[in-house]
Structure formats: C-alpha cells, structure tokens
Amino acid sequence: MRQLLAFVFALLPALTLAQAPVSVPAPVDATDPVMAETLPTDVPLAEIRRYVSVYNAVKDAYVEPVDDKQLMKSALRGLLSDLDPHSAYLDKDEAEALLDDTRGEYVGIGVETERRPDDTLLVVAPIDGTPAHRAGLRAGDVIVAIDGEPLSGNAKPHHDLRGEAGEPVTITITRVGEIEPRDMTIVREAIRVTSVTSRLLEPGYAYLRISTFQTDTGPQVRRQLRKLAEEAEGSMSGLVLDLRSNPGGLLSAAVEAADALLDDGLIVRTQGRLPYSNASFHAKPGDLLEGAPVIVLVDTGTASAAEVLAGALRDHGRASVMGSRTYGKGSVQTVVPLDNGDSIKLTTARYYTPSGISIQARGILPDIVLRGEAARGMREQDLAGHLAGEAEAKAKAGELIEGDSAISRALDALKAGTATARARRRF
C-alpha cells in the first residue's frame, strides 16, 4: 500500500510553522485501498454542473480577470475551510511549514494561533523561550494586523509571521481588558523548540514542563524523568507535570509521554468513519516513577495532545488534574500530500479518553480548581463551524493561569496527599 505520509495531529488548535523540504509521494491513486475508501460512490452531477456554472460566471463576468489556477485553488480552500476550523487546503510552503513545526525547527516568532472567520489570528499559546513569549504575547490575544496591514482578506496570515532570521515584524493585537489595540515589534529568529524541561522543586519532588508535542518529545520525557530520579537518589515522592498553555502537537508524542507514566492500559482511542481512522493506543509495562503521585497543571490554553495526556493519566487514576477547564480540541487531522506538492489537512476522527469520554468541545475539567485570568475565545466550542461535541460542556470558559504560584499549589497538594497515586488506577 502506498504510504500516505499522513501526519496525525492532536494538533494545535492552529498551526504556525516553518520551512524545510518535504518529499512528495505519488499522486492520490484510486487503486490505493486506503484512498479507494474515500472515493464517492455517487457523484453529485447536478451539484457539479452548478459549480461549473458558477465557475464560468466568475471567470466571464468578474470585474477583473481571474486566473484559472487561482480560482480553482480558492474553490478548494472553501471546500475544506467550511467543514470545520481545522480542515484546510495547504500550499506546498504551508505543508512544508507544518512538517517543520513537528520537528521544532523553523524561522518565525514562536506562537501557536487559530485563524478566525474574519482572518484575524487568535493566540492559543506563545511557545516557551521564543521571541513571542519574551515580548509578552499571551494566550487569548488577537492579532489583527501585521506590519500595519489588516488581516481581513489575507489568505495566508500565518505566512506573514515568517521571514528571515533577524527581520523584525510588527503585529497589532487586541487584548481582553484593554480598550485600544497595541503594537508589538518582534524580531524573527530561528526557533528551536525545547519541548521538555525539568527540575527538582525540593528533595523528592520534581517538576516537568511539556510546552508542545513534537517528534523528540517522547524520548525527552523519558530522559528527563530518569535524570530527575537520579537527582532524587531514586526516591521520588511526587511530580508536578505542567501542561499549561501547551497547544498540542503530535499524537504519537503524547502517547509516548503517557506511556512513561503508566504500566498498562488504554491511553487514547480515535474513531472516524473509515477503518484507518480507528485506532487504540496502549501503554507498555514500565512506569518510570514507580507509582509516585502526579499533579497535572492545565489551563484554557491546554489543548489537543496535551488534553489526551491529561485525560489518560486521570482516567487511570494515575494523576489529579489541577487548574482550569482546558480548550476542548478533541479531533484528529490527517495531512495527505497531493501530486502538485500541496496537501489537504482533513479532520478524520475524534479522540476518546480511556473512559470513553470525547474531549471535543468539552475539554478536561480539573479535579482541583485554580483561578486565573479570563482569555477571550479560548474554547473550541466558541469557534465558528466547530465540530459538534458529543457532550459539549456547559461550564464556563477556562482561564489562563500563569506564574509559579500554581506550581507551589501543586507541590502543596502532593505533600498533603491530595494527588492520585497508582493504587487508585481504574483501568
């Protein structure tokens, strides 16, 4: 079977990535057993005729000449963008940028965004240690202009945040609680994301931060946990796992991270309409913390793959979740390359936690609530055209929780015995 080169994402509610060569596989082939499943059995000829009529009307009568190639590409973009906020038609450079982001290497300002219906960009999370983070960009900010140009009508707003290392870019943002927009000038640089960091908080108690899920995150989690165990001289009393403002990333990386803290059992299940969209991922023996209790810190910027990890640890009774309601992105995107170098990013499945709960438009509700600051639009269910959740939470939107006070609260909970240990594992 021809390899689809399909990258499955617990993806960032939005994508801002970089550039590196992508090997383009053969064109989509109707003889491919996987692709054959997606071919329509009943071609809607009447609708196709209507499309051709509209196409010809635009081609013949629009006030300015329209290039055939561009007109067709616009139609394809519309076909996908109307499905849900995460399906999209990607030009070759956008597809290359997507691949680069999974590697954690690109040139830009270091921010995960969600494109809104008016073409403005909602900031899901600035990535730790990047120019956007250092400049003070925050989850919930909305980018309304780049270099003085409003984003309305901009077909590639994410692309304009990219450029050459050392080049400045000025973004105009609006922020909750501020009446006037503000400008930020940020210098682009080569972004090399270190997705996992750790330290000992005090003897026996450790802190592990996962800022995003990329190709090297799983091995990094294992490496950091082993290092922490050595520093604690083999006696680990508890772990604070910080997933705040983690926008997600590769599903496989989240599965690897969960596997490092579980001995067995289901981690996550995906379910779609086609057989290749249905999969179950299970943990292998070997809990690197040997059952030491875990507190998972989350907030409204915790999304997708990060929600998968938090949900798996909680459902297995392996951890308690502290913070605020999470974003609620529980859908799988599959990227399929096309024969011209472009790709389509299509929502193909939903995520389900081990207990069978869909994350979509629901999120993870914390066991221990912390208060933070309101963040505009930081819920999947607030996105226009979002995939309906099976049980959309009626709870109010989550909050953005920043700073070290949440880490101190989590440490106190570990020492007080509030965290869940492996003995209470349910699956």
From TrEMBL:
<dbReference type="InterPro" id="IPR029045">
    <property type="entry name" value="ClpP/crotonase-like_dom_sf"/>
</dbReference>
<keyword id="KW-0645">Protease</keyword>
<keyword id="KW-0720">Serine protease</keyword>
<feature type="domain" description="PDZ">
    <location>
        <begin position="95"/>
        <end position="153"/>
    </location>
</feature>
<dbReference type="InterPro" id="IPR036034">
    <property type="entry name" value="PDZ_sf"/>
</dbReference>
<protein>
    <submittedName>
        <fullName>Peptidase S41</fullName>
    </submittedName>
</protein>
<dbReference type="InterPro" id="IPR041489">
    <property type="entry name" value="PDZ_6"/>
</dbReference>
<keyword id="KW-0378">Hydrolase</keyword>
<dbReference type="Pfam" id="PF03572">
    <property type="entry name" value="Peptidase_S41"/>
</dbReference>
<dbReference type="InterPro" id="IPR055210">
    <property type="entry name" value="CtpA/B_N"/>
</dbReference>
<dbReference type="Pfam" id="PF17820">
    <property type="entry name" value="PDZ_6"/>
</dbReference>
<dbReference type="InterPro" id="IPR001478">
    <property type="entry name" value="PDZ"/>
</dbReference>
<dbReference type="InterPro" id="IPR005151">
    <property type="entry name" value="Tail-specific_protease"/>
</dbReference>
<dbReference type="Pfam" id="PF22694">
    <property type="entry name" value="CtpB_N-like"/>
</dbReference>
<keyword id="KW-0732">Signal</keyword>
<dbReference type="InterPro" id="IPR004447">
    <property type="entry name" value="Peptidase_S41A"/>
</dbReference>
<feature type="signal peptide">
    <location>
        <begin position="1"/>
        <end position="20"/>
    </location>
</feature>
<comment type="similarity">
    <text>Belongs to the peptidase S41A family.</text>
</comment>
